[in-house]
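Sample 1 of the test manifest.
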Amino acid sequence: MSTAHTTLDQERIEEFQGLAVTEAAAAESAACCYLGDVLGLYEAMAGAGRLTSGELAARTGTHERYLREWLANQVSGGYLIYDADDGTFELPDEHAAVLADPDSPAYVAGIFPIIAAAWASADRAAEAFRTGDGVGWHEHDPRLFEGVERIFAPLYRHQLVQDWIPALDGVHERLTAGARVADLGCGHGASTIVLAQAYPASRLTGFDFHAESIAAASKAAAEAGVGDRVGFEVAAADSFPGEDYDLVCLFDCLHDMGAPVAAAARARRALADDGTLLVVEPQAGDDLTDNINPISRLFYAGSVFLCTPSSLAQDGATGLGAQAGPSRLLEVLSDAGFTHRRIAAETPFNLVIEARP
Ligand SMILES: C[S@@+](CC[C@H](N)C(=O)[O-])C[C@H]1O[C@@H](n2cnc3c(N)ncnc32)[C@H](O)[C@@H]1O
């Protein structure tokens, strides 16, 4: 079809072309942000006030000529402030909280390695679109696993114990008294470690079918000083070992699984009679029309490259997708035999679901 047609709305073309170019600038600049992250440029600029390119080069062991281009890109994107009078660049403290401080609740720099990993698997994704095959979680560029930990850990550190656990009926009290906890699909164990730190009387085991993630989680638990009460084991969610857990958790992983009903059903059988299942999933409405916003857009992109291929690579190949929405998620739990199911809390990024047998 030719679009050089005189009946086309030229104003609409220009408006959309402007949007497409703006988006392309942001997309290519994400690779610059990746450099800012891996080279420690944001970190070096955090709290440093105004720096020249030469000063930043000296602080980071990088070449000034390259930095000048990078700094210009960051200024044009609104990430840095440029002072034309003295030729200095500044990362405002508020931007540093987002880009350079892993302890900040606003920190999102973990997205850059995830974007890098998505690009690294783009051709593989194209092939999967044609064949319908999945792409296993373990087949991705390892930057994915690091990025997932870095993007989710701030949510767990600032919301899990403060808001999500108290939203569940009686769970805080049980964890305080000493509970048995299983954290399924635990990845690098960020959620498991946060719970272990907050509830020293509890015993926790993180399970994941990705052996490299389990190795990283064990190392992180030892470094955090909770290795005595946290264990990590390689296991699939639908066949993890153990019984009589007071709490079984699934943090941002149910939708990545090939057989989410089987995983939730195994969790139900592993729970003590009055135990609780906690499912944390990406925030979403039930319908695409509910999800036309930047956060859902980000989740849909992750779903295209990472979540849906992961599910389609496994037995069951359910392909829930990262924006399944509350009704579909509660239906999965119903199919798994949970009679009590409710949305216990919501945030801009997450749905927090409580279920009981
Ligand atoms: C998006 S990551 C979330 C990791 C971690 N829960 C977190 O919040 O940081 C999804 C995790 O689910 C794991 N996973 C996917 N399918 C699984 C399955 N069937 N059994 C066990 N783990 C699974 C992956 O290996 C990956 O670590």
